[in-house]
Every structure is written in C-alpha cells, then in structure tokens.
C-alpha cells in the first residue's frame, strides 16, 4: 500500500473531510473539482474501502473513512514536522491547531493569542471552539495539535498539563435573585436553565448541584455563545452556570447576581495532547510559550 500512496492524496482527503464539499476542497487546494475526485478514488482503490458517503447535501465519512482520517492527519503533521526539521528553522512557522471552549478563549486565552500572533507572524494559529467532548475527540483522532479542557480526561493516550483553576457560578437577573432570596432556591424549579449544552462539562456539573439542592431541570435552553447566555440571563429569561470571570463587569454594574449555592464549583483547565503525536518544532514552541504564559499569569494573580 505504501508504494501507491502520495502526500497529495492525503491533503485532498483532509480538505474534503473538513470542507464537506468537493468544490470547496478543490478551491482550498487550488485544484479543479475532478482532481479531488480522482485523488479520493485512488485512495479508495488503494485501501480497498469506501471512505466517503456521497449525499446530495454533502459528504460524510464511512466507518473506514473514520479510521483512515486518523492516519491521514498523522501523515500530514509528520510531513510538516519533517520539513521544519530539515529546514533547521530558527523561527516558528506553519500551522498549529487548537480547540477550546468559547468561554475560556474569551476570558482567559485572548491575551495570549494576541501576544503570540504578534510575536510569531509566520505561524497560522487555527483556534476552534468546541465542547469538552469535541475537544477530546479531536485529540484522540489526531485532528488537533492541542486542546484545552476544563478537567483532566484521565486517559492513558492523553497528556494533561494543568494551566489554571476556574470558578464556576450560578448567575441570574436581579428579579430572579430577589425571588430566590425571599422564597429559596426551590423557585428555580420554575425557571429556564440556560447552558452551553448537555455535552458541556459545566452543564452536567450544574445539573448535579441543582439535583442535590432539590431542583429538577425541566426546561433548558442550549446556546453556544457565552454572550447570548449572559444577555438572556440579564433580561430575566432564566439562570445559568458560567465562569465567574466572564460576568465580572455585569456583577459590578448589578446586571447579574450570584445565586446562593453552597457548592464551590472549581475546574482545573489544562492543555491536552495525544502522547503518540509527533509535535513539530512550531507546535513544541507554541506549547512552551502557552504554558509559560499561564504560569506567569497565575503567579501574578496569587
């Protein structure tokens, strides 16, 4: 099989996987659409397996395609690492892919992102948003270089580097806060719970805390945007579990109030990487700078 494989086939496979369209994959690589089709056909012939389901609405990986994708990503990243090593780079360049929760990026990572891109203009830093499970899957499938998750996955394939503790709080409008203060937290049984979704670790933690307080979540709204969650909660549409740092301004102005739960909800966010991943020079440099940045940040805020 190895004698028949070419790097351009892998690039076409990944472009099609990520773009979900033959035409967009072709545009991304600067090919005509028929070239992408030919490359995928070559891969399917070489592997002896159908790699993609073709539907009118787009494409999806077959089971064989899901297995193949892990090796395709490894091949591309290994090639990039080899190229950088052979060129004896003195400055980082190339692409680093990292996935994190939106709330962590907006409240914690944005200053690092701005500093890093300013100091390393030749690096294409691709930051994606996802839930805890999305991030973990991206690492396990070799799709990402790094992920930032709110809790150690405790998996033997994953290396976890703790970077920061985060306090999570229940927040609500002044009106709901007064109701809770006057009648107790049980009134939340009749309020809308707003979260980032059931795949979010914050959501599952919130449900457990509420259950222990005698509150059953009957009505929940899932929103991917932290800003939308804050806006809805501020206007009295329900209550939510959010990072405390994300609502500092709203707490100061009184737009939001902390609900009185005794549980101290803290998460240790950390950088994760697949232990078998061959990191490029640029990826190793990125990892070192990120860990150094958060180490310095924590020392300043002790």
SSE diagram, text form:
Blueprint lengths: L6 H13 L2 H8 L3 H15 L4 E4 L2 E4 L1 H24 L7 E7 L1 H18 L3 E7 L2 H9 L5 E4 L8 E15 L1 H10 L9 E3 L5 H12 L7 E3 L3 H9 L4 E5 L4 H6 L3 E2 L6 E10 L6 H20 L2
Parallel strand pairs: 3-4, 3-5, 7-8, 7-9
Antiparallel strand pairs: 1-2, 5-11, 6-9, 6-10, 6-11
The number of distinct helices, counting runs of at least 4 residues, comes to: 11
Distance between the termini: 56 Å
Major sheet details: 9 strands, mixed
Structural class: alpha/beta
Low-confidence region ranges? none
Helix-strand pattern: HHHEEHEHEHEEHEHEHEHEEH
* Number of beta-strand segments: 11
Mean pLDDT: 87
Overall 3D geometry? globular
Strand residue content: 15-25%
Taking Cα atoms only, what radius of gyration do you get, to the nearest Å? Answer: 23 Å
Helix percent reads 40-55%
Q: What distinguishing features does this structure have?
A:
single chain; 302 residues; alpha/beta; 9-stranded mixed beta sheet; globular
Structure, explained:
With about 300 residues, this protein is an alpha/beta fold. The chain has helices at about 5-20, 20-30, 35-45, 65-85, 100-120, 130-140, 175-185, 200-210, 225-235, 250-255, 280-300, and strands at about 50-55, 60, 95-100, 125-130, 145-150, 160-170, 195, 220, 240-245, 255-260, 265-275. A hairpin with a 2-residue loop joins strand 1 and strand 2. Helix 1 crosses helix 3 (about 35-45). The model has no long low-confidence stretch (mean pLDDT about 85). Belongs to the LysR transcriptional regulatory family.
